[in-house]
Amino acid sequence: MDVCIPQDRAPRDFCVKFPEEIRHDSLAGQLWFGAECLAAGSIIMNRELESMAMRPLAKELTRSLEDVRGALRDQALRDLSTYTEKMREALRHFDVLFAEFELSYVSAMVPVKSPREYYVQQEVIVLFCETVERALDFGYLTQDMIDDYEPALMFTIPRLAIV
Fold it and tell me: Long-range contacts: 22-31, Cβ < 8 Å, 24+?
């Protein structure tokens, strides 16, 4: 996909929301195993509702891979140096489905922040930054306190933000 449809890949911005221990090289293989198991009727332990909700997507994903395999077989019998539109479309469709499945599967397994939670977190960060800037302007804090990570400062900033 990186060679055939590099500009048409499904966005994976949501991956930054995943905990660090989830992001590793074998994640794609684990996701594919999960998709095959769900498509075959398995249920993720203690996640029955999520499993049933993901099953149609897992089935569609496995069907999509069959389409990609068929397109690759046709391509292998023809010219290997060019990519047909059929192959590109099959890869695009598979990539979109895999990205959807990746987000839903990982979200079912570990807590993943919603866009609303990220927005609220950003609002708090901006509030604290503005508070620190105003406190510096008014002389409530010194730059040395901030640079030295003064412990009392960690309690002061939220209080100043409230005021």
Answer: 22/106, 22/109, 22/110, 27/102, 31/98, 31/101, 31/102, 31/105, 31/106
Inter-residue contact 18 to 112 (CB < 8 Å): yes
Q: What are 62-69's contacts with CB under 8 Å, separation 24+?
A: 62/35, 62/36, 64/90, 64/93, 64/94, 64/97, 65/94, 67/93, 67/94, 68/94
pLDDT in tens, 123-139: 888 888 888 888 889 88
Per-residue tokens: 39: 């498509």
DSSP 8: S
- Choose the weakest-confidence range: 4-18, 22-36, 48-62, 97-111: 4-18
CA–CA dist 147, 149 (Å, integer): 6
Task: Find the angle CA(150)-CA(153)-CA(156) to the nearest 5 degrees.
Answer: 165
Name, in order, each residue with C-beta under 8 angstroms of 42's C-beta and a sequence gap of 6 or more.
51
Q: Is the pTM of this model over 0.90?
A: no
Q: Is 161 helix (H, G, I), strand (E, B) or coil?
A: helix
Residue 60's contacts (CB-CB under 8 Å, 6 or more residues apart) are: 97
Contact 103, 14 (CB under 8 A): yes
Query: Distances from the Cα of 105 to the Cαs of 40, 53, 109, 157, in angstroms?
Result: 16, 10, 6, 38
